[in-house]
Design brief:
The chain contains five helices and two strands. By secondary structure, it is mainly alpha-helical. The protein has two domains: 67 residues, Arc Repressor Mutant, subunit A (Orthogonal Bundle); 42 residues. Helix 1 packs across helix 3 and helix 2 crosses helix 3. The chain is elongated, with a radius of gyration of 18 Å. This is DNA-binding transcriptional regulator YhcF (GntR family). InterPro entries: Tscrpt_reg_HTH_GntR, WH-like_DNA-bd_sf, WH_DNA-bd_sf. Keywords: DNA-binding, Transcription, Transcription regulation.
Length: 119
């Protein structure tokens, strides 16, 4: 459901982002309203609204006055790019630092990853 380690509004935004990335919400598709999402998640509508605002500010969602929120054109690819950079910063860089401290070469590390991927 929602990640308890983050502020609720951030977790709401990430849940919508996940839906865009996995194809639940395609470009130009509507997303649930603030009230619908708040009721479903049993959270305050203002909290859900704050999560939606993050996505609007990031260009992931667009508001259509009187109609609702829709996935912006190019949102899926923009999210992928942003998360790839975050993945590198959060996982790859620390992995390489730890491997260097342990004397694991890049080739050995690549072998380990390949072996783990086929498990």
């Amino acid at each position: 459901m929602l990640d308890d380690s983050k502020p609720l509004f951030v977790a709401v935004a990430e849940q919508i982002e996940d839906g865009i990335l996995d194809g639940t919400y395609a470009e130009d598709d509507p997303v649930p309203s603030t009230n619908e999402l708040a009721a479903f998640l049993r959270i305050n509508p203002a909290t859900a609204g704050k999560g939606f605002s993050l996505l609007v500010d990031a260009g992931v969602l667009i508001k259509r006055r009187g109609i609702g929120m829709f996935v912006a054109p190019g949102a899926r690819e923009a999210l992928r790019q942003r998360r790839r950079f975050a993945f590198q910063d959060q996982f790859i860089a620390p992995l390489l630092r730890e491997a260097a401290q342990l004397g694991i070469s890049a080739e050995d590390l690549a072998d380990m990853i390949t072996k783990e991927a086929v498990r």
